[in-house]
């Protein structure tokens, strides 16, 4: 989709990536400050954050890829996706734009 020569899908993907990068940087700083207060080794926390960011990056890559394939094949209706996201957002009991993994983790996953 294009508005006045601007590829809106690319623009919004870039804006979302920028927002996620800023959020990850804020979270990293916050966690490192907390780690310092409780005396944990900052390098260990840094490694854990790097791993978490890597996991998030892989999840984002797969999510965007899946979105693009479904949209290109005409199998994705943006309004349906938005409605499904609202429904899934409530699985953890809070409409806050994110999902607590424990809301979808099975008991088998939790014990392994």
Report on the structure:
The chain is mostly helical and 112 residues long. The chain has 2 domains: 1-72, no CATH class; 77-103, no CATH class. 71% of the residues lie in helices and 4% in strands. The chain is built from 4 helices and 2 strands, in the order ββαααα. The chain has helices at 8-38, 42-72, 78-89, 107-111, and strands at 2-3, 6-7. A two-stranded antiparallel ribbon has the order 1-2. It starts with a strand and ends with a helix. The mean pLDDT is 81.
Task: Give the arrangement of secondary structure elements.
Blueprint lengths: L1 E2 L2 E2 H31 L3 H31 L5 H12 L17 H5 L1
Antiparallel strand pairs: 1-2
Helix pairs in contact: 1-2
Counted by DSSP, the helix tally is 4
In helices, the fraction of residues equals: over 70%
Radius of gyration: 18 Å
Number of domains: 2
Relative strand content: under 5%
Give start-end ranges of low-pLDDT stretches.
none
**How many beta-strand runs?**
2
Q: What is the N-to-C order of secondary-structure elements (H for helix, E for strand)?
A: EEHHHH
The biggest sheet amounts to:
2 strands, antiparallel
Strand order of the biggest β-sheet? 1-2
The chain-level mean pLDDT equals 81
Distance between the termini: 44 Å
Structural class: mainly alpha
Shape: globular
């Amino acid at each position: 989709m294009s508005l006045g020569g601007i590829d809106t899908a690319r623009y919004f993907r870039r804006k979302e990536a920028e927002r996620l990068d800023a959020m990850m940087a804020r979270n990293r700083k916050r966690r490192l400050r907390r780690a310092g207060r409780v005396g944990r080794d900052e390098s260990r926390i840094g490694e854990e954050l790097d791993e978490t960011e890597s996991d998030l990056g892989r999840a984002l890559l797969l999510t965007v890829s899946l979105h693009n394939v479904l949209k290109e094949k005409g199998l994705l209706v943006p309004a349906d996706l938005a409605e499904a996201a609202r429904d899934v957002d409530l699985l953890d009991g809070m409409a806050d734009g994110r999902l607590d993994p424990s809301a979808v983790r099975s008991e088998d996953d939790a014990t392994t």
